[in-house]
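Attaching the record inline, Q. Sequence:
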Amino acid sequence: MLSLKPLQDIKLSPLALLDSAYIIVLLPLMLILKVPMLVFSFIVLVLLFLKKAPAHKFLIVFVFLMGMLALYLSLYGVFSFRGLSRLKLFLELLVYVLIIVVSMQRLTREINFYLLLSPILFLALSLFFFHGIMMLSYVIVEIFILLWLILAHRMSGDMVESFRASMVMFMYSLPWVVVLFIFFPRISFDHADYGFKGENIQRMGHDGTMFLDSKALLVPSDRIVMEVGFDKEVPSSDKLYFRGSILYVDRKDHWEPLPSTVKRKSPIYYPQKGESVDYKVTLYPTQKRWIYLLDMPALAVKGADLDKDLISTVEKPIKAPMHYAATSSLSPKLHDNLDQDTLYASTHFDAKRNPKTYREAQRIKKRFKKPDERASALIKFFQQQSLVYSLKPKALDINNTADSFLFDTRLGYCVHFASSFVVMARMAGIPSRIVTGYKADKANSLNNYLSVKERDAHAWAELYINQHWVRVETTSTASAIDAEAEEILTGHNELLKRLNLHLMYIKYQVETWILYYSNIRQLQLLQYAKENPRFILIFVLSLVALVLITFSITLYFRRPRCTHKILCILEPLLRKLKKEGYSRENGETMHQYFMRYMKDHPDNSVIKEVDKYYETISYGGDSSSATIKQLKSMVKKSLSS
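Structure, as predicted:
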């Protein structure tokens, strides 16, 4: 029958400890290896498993040639001096070379400086390929395990005692790491592009167009597009409009912005009223140039352009998480003086394409003279059409989309509502345009944190009334929401939704205060502490709590480990006798130890009983539960006497 060794009896050889270190540090890098290099690594593992003796030099040469072939096949097509100028490709090449060299040295079964140093190099290189919180957590585990393995080597392979020593060292260092991390001067790297940066999955982003056919914007996904941290409370949902792009030109099946020949570079007119809010945004990769600002942005973001329509863009597509701070005014109105090109673009329409819509718009235009009255009449007309908000609308007739939506299908979502409303507003004599972006939901907020998801992609209308662009939420004119759309919009399980929000909030705080803890954030934190004595008190109490927790864990792992059940029972008594000045000497049996104590304390009958039961169990062969229970009882009695 197969029997397993007790954990405390397991001892690993230096090679086994080194192999364990390589397994830990190479696991993340396996995800970036190309197939030829994975095949090479597998062959090396098979050779190590089958060949216990040192490999012959011809085998090592063969492994080298095989590794070079795998390297060539892995980088075929990008292996050029121009390609090697890219940091990521160069680091990938470095990983491949290290794997080949380590494989050759490991087959010799000899430990040298290169084998000892390489796990640290692999750990450092993995930080350039994986940048999220998962990798941050894994790095902490890696560092602990590497420390454990180093101590195990120093302790001749004793895994249990080395683990206890690692925990003690880790706990001792934890409070110091926290203090140094917070207060040690930070170095400012404004253009740094390495280290932990968050996940790089591409998100859906607007590209300055809005389709009405099968390409219409609709991504009912919970994937996070951006995370927003407000300096104060998160505003209400009706104020969470993040402006992306402005569309003026109707191309039947889609809308476009102003032609590139029209540049709205005249002075920007900011809203005169509205609550001012400060916030910070983490925008995930969209491969587009647009960044999103809360209506209405007061200033341009550093490194970005802000045009007269308050649309913000950067020079290059966003391929990595972008972080920016902004200030906005929460106003549904924007003062603007229209130039002739913009006025023409925002009033142009083709009456022949949508005759029914044109007829109703003309009726409103004749009945109401003021633009604001016409706008109210348009909203009322939409409300009377029994329009249904649906994420699965019927296909529109592209040649007359407004008529098709308002008088035929009557089913659609934001793009259909916004497009038809703008078309009809222009026919009623009101300059109008479409805004695409995101309308966030405060239900996806926690404290001052807000998550904006792909499903929050939205389109709404802006009407030019009394020299102001006025926002109109066109989807609010829907008389009903179909069941499927309501289920997607509200979420399937409220409990899971809240749990996920809390997890995202924790992730955001970790990224904000750990992954992106820069010199700027350090100064902000110190300034906040200077202005808020209560924060200093909370910080000190938290640090004291951390010290107490680590001290308790340290005491637990520092306590002597008994290797036998009977010794564990006697351990409290032995500690008591040691305090009285009776330490057990080297080579002294337990019976001799107790006899020496009883010689100075002949009246202590309890110790005599303890010695009797110990001898009965250890040498008399009586290890019944009753005898062990008696021993425990005598030890307890001796402690209380």
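The longest strand covers residues 275-283. Confidence is low (pLDDT under 50) at residues 1-8, 81-85, 188-200.

More tomorrow.
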